[in-house]
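Q: Got a minute? One more chain.
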Amino acid sequence: MFRRGGYFFNGPVLPAWSLVLIGAIGVTLLFVAVALVLRRRRVQASQLRGLSEAQRYTLEEFESQVLALLSQHGGQLSQLQIASALGLPAERVAERLHKMETEGQIERRWSAEEYTYSVRRPSD
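A: Always. Here it is, folded:
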C-alpha cells in the first residue's frame, strides 16, 4: 500500500510519461471538438450569406414550415413547389430537405415527369 498525498492508494503508480500521454490526448480531443464547432458555424454563416432577412428567418424555421406546407397540401409536394412557396433558392432547399430525410422527418422520391423530388411525410 502506498501513501500518496495524504490518501492511501492501492495499485501500481502510473509512470510520468503515461500521465503526459493522457493529457496530450485530452488536449487533442478538445482541439478537435473546438475545430468542429467553428467549422459548423462557418458553414452555417456561409449558407446565410446573400439572403434577405425574411429568407434567413425562413431557413431558421425551415423544418416546421416544410411540415406545415405538406399538411396544407395533402401531405405531398414537389421540391420545387416547396422552394417556390418558401421563397428560397432551390439548392438551399435541397440541402435542408436532404438533412430532414436523413433524420427521418420526410421521404423524397425522384419524379421523372417533373424532374424533381416529390416530398412527403414518412409512411408509418
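A: The two ends are 62 Å apart (CA to CA).
Q: Perfect, thanks.
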